[in-house]
Every structure is written in structure tokens, then in C-alpha cells.
């Protein structure tokens, strides 16, 4: 007899977000071996600045050889047991780097920091600390599809969407926050907090000071928590500049208050340094009870001592980190402009963005119908006919059909250029009568606004793949 976890379907792996990855893995693009394969544009990975890291490693071989600055072996020290609090040298270097990413606007105390095996583990651990099974967190839409797994699967927590609209660029509003809270109450769910990604995944936009003030006021009035996932904070490549929730608390003189104890930050080195394989995640909290509990839970997903040692050496080199952050942002901006410009040539627009490794792309005018069925039909054509894996908006719980997340930093310029050529060829071949006018699609959307997504969107199967494939 197996446990319920083995047979339950709440993991979210059947989402179109993950199914697109499966199709890519069956037919991955390779410039030489498989030039007609599927290009992976559904993976938010930063591959633009590996040369900077590799250059540092070539100039500083001691950490990789497990030797100190006196060239003495420290292999035994790193190989033996380390407690789950983490290496002090790494935690000290990490909080300084977190402050540097935020322009020195706020400092972090290493005693308030918990190391986890990536941001996925950090977010789940916070759910275990802040919510009981059946409690709810409010998340603004669209949101990262993996949250359905990270926040809910093992914890038993629930997600209630804060419905945001394209009419204001999917910005968080007071009315949307209040409406989400009311919806949770109607479902007899106890709201324990709000979770936001700042900068947003999938929008690629950083939260405004107005939105951050709204959030602080909201959690204060409702006596609930706020989790700010800031794993993309170092990717902000153009104005407006990034504002951390910790900076807002500091400027409001709230750092030593009960409100500050209900604000928690998640960070990692997966996006800013492009090191998802190193599994470096962070929980930062001003509540010592959360820090204590999360530290104990981290024993189930520790960061290796070898990884901590190497990263402490890299992050302690402030000349390197300053150069890296500046150059990486420049490269991200350049690649972002390449994607936006390429899509524009095909008559496709994006939400104006200033950060992240992706764009939130508007393909509403390409839908055969202004429905989520129409969105999935278009998505399948893009996967099978165009040969691009992108993430449909419905997988991100967007309330409006026709939006897609498209990543740009996990491939070469040549591959991105080919992807844009494929998009243009696809759009150019579409019958003009099938492309709705912009004004008509807005009218249709407003008259059929969807308040909640149909269940089938998240239980999507690929039984029709052969039909679509035969259309190629």
C-alpha cells in the first residue's frame, strides 16, 4: 500500500508548462545534429555570462582545488560533517552580495538567513513555516507555473489568485487584493499571506513603489504575511530600478516592528549568477521563530560545503561581483531588445519590461477564438509547426487568453535569430482573415472575461499531438 502522495495528481507536472518541456526533450534543436528541432524558449535560464565566471575560476584555481590562500589543502575540512546553519564565510559573503544587488539600499544580517537547496526549497519551507494544510496564500496573476508544485504539493497549502489585468499592464491594485481575499473567504480558506515575485516571473517587470506600499498596508491591515521572491533582483537591466521590500520597510521605519517579522524574502543565485545547478537558495526573515524552524527544515535539503566554499570565494571578490553585475545586465538588455525587435517585425508586441530572462508576449490577435481553447490551439502549432517551446499564459493562471512567456537568455544569438525567423514565417503564412483586429479582440475579451481558468487547462494531455504533428 502506497501513500497518498504517490498516487495524487496535485504535483502540477501535467501543466502545459511542463508538457512543453517534454516535447522539447523528445526533439531538441541542435544547430548541426537536429536543425529542425524544437528551440527551448520555455526555460528561464541565464547563460549569457558564463565566460565571466570561467575567467574568474581560471585566475583563481585554489577554491576548485580545495586549497586556501596559503595553498594548503582544506579538502578534509570540507568533506567532514557541517551543521545545517551553513558556513559563516559563505553567509557573510552572500548577505553582502544581496546588498550589492540592491544598490546598497539595505543591509542584511547573516543571522537572519537560512540556506536551502534552491529557491524551490526556500518557498516550500516558508509555506511549511507560515501555513497549515488548507490555509491559503494570495498570488498575483500571471504567476510562475511551478508555484502550483512548490507551494502546494507537499504542504497542503492553497493558492488564491489575485486577478490582474492587461488594461494596466498586470499591475497589482488594492481592489484586486481585496477581491482575492473575499474569494478566499467564500471558499472558507484562511488567508495566511501574499506571495509576489519581484521582479515578476513571467512579466519581467519590477514592482513599483506604489504596489509595494499597497502590499505592506494590506498585510498590515489583515495581519498576514508577505513573501517577496526576489530571485531576479540582479537582472534589472533598465529603469525603473529595483526596489526590495526590505528597502520599503526601512524607509517606513518598520524594520523593528511586528510588521517586519511578517515579511520574508526568498533569494537564490540561480538567475543572477546563472547557477541553478549549484542549488543555492535563501530565506531571509526578521522573525527568529521562522529562522529557527526553517533552519531545522533545511537539513532535508542542504547546500554542500564544497559549493558554499567556492561561492564564498567568488562573492567575496567585490571587484568581480561589481563587474559581473554590470556586464550581465548589459548583455540581458541587449538580448531583450533582440527578442522584442524580432517579435515586432512579425507584428507581435510585449508588455514593456525592465528585468528577468523573458518577455510577456501578446499573441491575442493570432488566436482563432478569444478563448483558452484558442490559446492551446495556437500553442500546439507553435510547438509542433514552428518548433518553439514557449509557455502559454493559461499555465501561468493568466485570466486572459493569448499571452505567452518567451525566454531569451538560455540560447545563443544565432539560435534566437533563427527562432524569430521561424515566428515571422509562421505569422506571414497565417490567413489574414484569421487574425483578429486589435480592437475586436479587446471587445471580445471584455465581453467574455474569464474569472477562473477551466480545470482542463491544467490537466492538459497530448492525445491530439499526432493530429497536430500531421499538419506540419
Oligomer: single chain
CATH class division of the largest domain: Alpha Beta
Compute the number of structural domains: 2
Number of helices: 18
Major sheet details: 7 strands, mixed
InterPro entries: Aminotransferase_I/II_large, Ethylene_sulfur-biosynth, NHTrfase_class1_PyrdxlP-BS, PyrdxlP-dep_Trfase, PyrdxlP-dep_Trfase_major, PyrdxlP-dep_Trfase_small
GO molecular function, one term: 1-aminocyclopropane-1-carboxylate synthase activity
Protein name: 1-aminocyclopropane-1-carboxylate synthase
Catalytic activity: S-adenosyl-L-methionine = 1-aminocyclopropane-1-carboxylate + S-methyl-5'-thioadenosine + H(+)
Outline the structure in words.
- The protein is built from 18 helices and 13 strands.
- It has helices at residues 4-7, 16-26, 50-59, 75-79, 88-101, 119-130, 147-150, 174-186, 209-222, 245-251, 258-261, 288-297, 305-316, 318-345, 372-386, 413-429, 438-447, 465-469; strands spanning 39-40, 113-116, 136-140, 158-162, 191-197, 225-229, 263-268, 281-285, 349-350, 358-362, 388-389, 391-392, 403-407.
- The chain has 472 residues and is of the alpha/beta class.
- Helix 5 crosses helix 13 (305-316), helix 6 packs across helix 12 (288-297) and helix 14 packs parallel to helix 16.
- The chain has a seven-stranded mixed β-sheet, sandwiched between helices. Strands 9-10-13-12 form a four-stranded antiparallel β-sheet. A two-stranded parallel ribbon has the order 1-11.
- It folds into two domains: 4-50 and 332-429, Aspartate Aminotransferase, domain 1 (Alpha-Beta Complex); 66-316, Aspartate Aminotransferase, domain 2 (3-Layer(aba) Sandwich).
- Helix 9 links the parallel strand 5 and strand 6.
Amino acid at each position: 500500500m502506497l501513500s497518498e502522495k504517490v498516487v495524487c495528481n496535485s504535483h502540477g507536472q501535467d501543466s502545459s508548462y511542463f508538457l512543453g518541456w517534454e516535447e522539447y526533450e523528445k526533439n531538441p534543436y541542435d544547430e548541426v545534429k537536429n536543425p529542425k528541432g524544437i528551440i527551448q524558449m520555455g526555460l528561464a535560464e541565464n547563460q549569457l555570462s558564463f565566460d565571466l565566471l570561467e575567467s574568474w575560476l581560471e585566475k583563481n584555481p585554489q577554491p576548485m582545488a580545495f586549497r586556501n590562500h596559503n595553498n594548503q589543502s582544506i579538502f578534509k575540512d570540507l568533506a567532514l560533517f557541517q551543521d545545517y546553519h551553513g558556513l559563516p564565510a559563505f553567509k557573510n559573503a552572500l548577505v553582502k552580495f544581496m546588498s550589492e544587488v540592491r544598490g546598497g539600499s539595505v543591509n542584511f544580517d547573516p543571522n537572519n538567513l537560512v540556506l536551502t537547496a534552491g529557491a524551490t526549497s526556500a518557498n516550500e519551507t516558508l509555506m511549511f513555516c507560515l501555513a497549515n494544510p488548507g490555509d491559503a496564500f494570495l498570488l498575483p496573476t500571471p504567476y510562475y507555473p511551478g508555484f502550483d508544485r512548490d507551494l502546494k504539493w507537499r504542504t497542503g497549502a492553497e493558492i488564491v489568485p489575485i486577478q490582474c489585468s492587461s488594461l494596466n499592464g498586470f499591475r497589482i491594485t488594492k481592489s484586486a487584493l481585496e477581491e482575492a481575499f473575499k474569494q478566499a473567504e467564500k471558499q472558507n480558506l484562511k488567508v495566511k499571506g501574499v506571495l509576489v515575485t519581484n521582479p515578476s516571473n513571467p512579466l519581467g517587470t519590477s514592482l513599483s513603489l506604489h504596489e509595494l506600499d499597497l502590499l505592506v498596508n494590506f498585510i498590515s491591515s489583515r495581519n498576514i504575511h508577505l513573501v517577496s521572491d526576489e530571485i531576479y533582483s540582479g537582472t534589472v537591466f533598465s529603469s525603473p530600478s529595483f526596489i526590495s521590500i526590505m528597502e520599503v520597510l526601512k524607509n517606513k521605519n518598520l524594520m523593528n516592528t511586528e510588521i517586519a517579522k511578517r515579511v520574508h524574502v526568498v533569494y537564490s543565485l540561480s538567475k543572477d549568477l546563472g547557477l541553478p545547478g549549484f542549488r543555492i537558495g535563501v530565506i531571509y526573515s526578521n522573525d527568529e521563530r521562522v529562522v529557527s524552524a526553517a533552519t531545522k527544515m533545511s537539513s532535508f535539503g542542504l547546500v554542500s560545503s564544497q559549493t558554499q566554499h567556492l561561492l564564498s570565494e567568488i562573492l567575496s571578490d567585490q571587484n568581480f561581483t561589481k563587474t559581473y553585475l554590470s556586464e550581465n545586465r548589459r548583455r540581458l538588455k541587449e538580448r531583450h531588445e533582440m527578442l522584442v525587435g524580432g517579435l515586432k517585425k512579425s507584428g507581435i508586441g510585449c508588455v514593456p519590461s525592465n528585468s528577468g530572462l523573458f518577455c510577456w508576449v501578446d499573441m491575442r490577435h493570432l488566436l482563432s477564438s478569444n478563448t483558452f481553447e484558442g490559446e492551446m490551439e495556437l500553442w500546439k502549432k507553435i510547438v509542433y509547426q514552428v518548433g518553439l517551446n514557449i509557455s502559454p499564459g493559461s499555465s501561468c493562471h493568466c485570466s486572459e487568453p493569448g499571452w505567452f512567456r518567451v525566454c531569451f537568455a538560455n540560447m545563443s544569438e544565432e539560435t534566437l535569430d533563427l527562432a524569430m525567423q521561424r515566428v515571422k514565417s509562421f505569422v506571414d503564412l497565417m490567413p489574414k482573415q484569421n487574425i483578429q483586429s486589435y480592437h475586436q479582440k479587446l471587445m471580445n475579451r471584455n465581453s467574455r472575461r474569464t474569472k477562473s481558468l477551466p480545470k482542463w487547462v491544467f490537466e492538459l494531455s497530448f492525445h491530439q499531438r499526432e493530429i497536430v504533428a500531421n499538419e506540419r
